[in-house]
Specification:
Structural class: alpha/beta
Radius of gyration: 21 Å
Oligomer: single chain
Helix content: 40-55%
Low-confidence stretches: none
Strand content: 15-25%
Number of helices: 8
Shape: globular
Distance between the termini: 45 Å
Length: about 230
């Protein structure tokens, strides 16, 4: 075997090892994200993540709802320093705004005012556990603000824009006071079940063509920026 053959085999092993490590890393990120509830598999997501147009459809959602569109949007509220990522899902019964949170531990929800997060930090050997309390902006207020912006952008008040707040599976969700009936607050794995329930109880307001039109109205600017980047 020639020296060049040994070099090529070595390069192939290095490339294969790099690909395997990268795939494992990306899979771990995928399984901890909301994408695992939206796309049929990691392989579909890996194929679609190349650009916004591919990401706008899912084999899984197509099976559950038929015609649909998915749009990813970052928005910053008034006087807010940190932008919030939203996922818009367009299905026949309207536009659904997903506000995905990453807080874990015990989360106390309120209709109005900041949410509270309680997190336990395991103490080192011989030390007691530490209890931490954090406040974070009410996601319902965030979602209402963003939903109004979407309504203004599409200029069609008869098209319902509904919000859903989503927390990780390991978050312990409790209510401090009377639960909110207007906006569902759910765990990640309840997403499709919640969307199906909402889609079934609400009348169809969007045709297939209207779903496409609304998607392009919302997404074309971002798609153009992606093409030119």
């Amino acid at each position: 075997m020639s020296v060049w053959s040994d070099v090529l085999i070595g390069l192939a092993f290095v490339a294969g090892g790099y690909w395997l490590i990268k795939t494992i890393y990306q899979w771990n990120r995928f399984r901890r994200s909301i994408y695992i509830e939206i796309y049929s598999s990691y392989f579909e997501y890996a194929f679609r993540r190349k650009n916004l147009i591919r990401l706008s459809e899912s084999f899984y959602l197509n099976n559950e709802f038929g015609k649909h569109k998915i749009f990813y949007q970052i928005a910053q509220g008034k006087n807010e320093k940190t932008p919030q990522a939203y996922i818009l899902i367009l299905i026949p019964s309207g536009i659904y705004v997903l506000n995905v949170k990453n807080q874990s531990g015990k989360v106390v929800l309120k209709k109005h005012g900041d949410y509270k997060q309680y997190y336990t930090e395991k103490g080192k050997k011989g030390q007691a556990d530490k209890q931490h309390e954090y406040l974070f902006k009410n996601p319902m207020d965030e979602s209402r603000f963003f939903a109004k912006r979407i309504e203004q952008r599409i200029g069609a008040t008869k098209i319902p824009v509904r919000s859903v707040i989503i927390f990780p599976e390991h978050a312990e969700i409790t209510w401090g006071g009377t639960p909110e009936n207007e906006i569902p607050v759910i765990h990640r794995k309840q997403l499709i079940q919640t969307l199906k329930k909402e889609n079934e109880k609400n009348e169809r307001v969007l045709s297939d063509d209207q779903i496409d039109e609304l998607y392009h109205l919302l997404a074309d600017e971002s798609i153009e920026l992606e093409k030119n980047s």
